[in-house]
Amino acid sequence: SATSSGKVKEIFVKEGELVNQGDMLIRVTEQDQISKIAKLKNDLKEAQTQLDKNSYLFKNRDRLLSEGKIEKPLYDTLENDAQTSETAVEKLQGEIAKLEEKSPTTTISSPMPGAVSKINTSAGTLVQAGKSIMTIVKFDPITVSFRLPSHYAATVKAGSVVTTKFNEIPGDGLMAKIISVTPTPKPSSVPNLSQI
Is the pLDDT confidence value at 135 over 70? Predict the structure, then answer.
């Protein structure tokens, strides 16, 4: 589960991959950081609009003054206004770049050894704290009991290696060793019980 809300920045594993306890699984950029960057980008958009307006007025101030569309006091401040707007845009661009470069992230690590059976998110998506983002199946050790038709009883012995397939673990299956075979009293009517 995600420990904090945020945007998935990176996924380090794939479904079916084996992981050890402590292996990095996913990196999430924290929501607070995303909110700060979004606000700064909105401020930048407004500052850029103001810069465009002030630059236009400054470049055309002589014509606008002669046509009577601006007055002398405004004419005198246009150069300073354009420079101030340009400085504001550059400052916001720098702040955004700095936050994006050093955005605080949370790295989520595997709490146990096992296999990644399902990934419920992808890079770039938002995740909420407490929501499941990945399923890891612990399989060491797994004990599986199964019934075996009696005509296989002679070929399956303790120590034999078999391949087992689980719906929760993608892939071709896991290699396992049979640890015991329990014969039944009536081989013709009840299959043997084997454990791996």
Answer: yes
Give the separation between CA 76 and CA 113, rounded to whole angstroms: 71
**Cα 20 from Cα 140, distance rounded (Å):** 11
The residue with tokens 């794939």 is 14
pLDDT for the residue 191: 47
pLDDT at 194: 47
The region of weakest confidence among 73-77, 125-129, 175-179 is 175-179
Mean pLDDT of 115-123: 88
Task: Please answer whether residues 132 and 119 qualify as being in contact, where contact means their C-beta atoms are separated by less than 8 angstroms.
Answer: no
Question: Which two three-digit tokens encode residue 176?
Answer: 């396992």
> What is the identity of the amino acid at 138?
K
Q: Token digits for 62?
A: 């002589």
Q: What mean pLDDT is reported for the chain?
A: 82
Residue with the two structure tokens 């673990």: 169
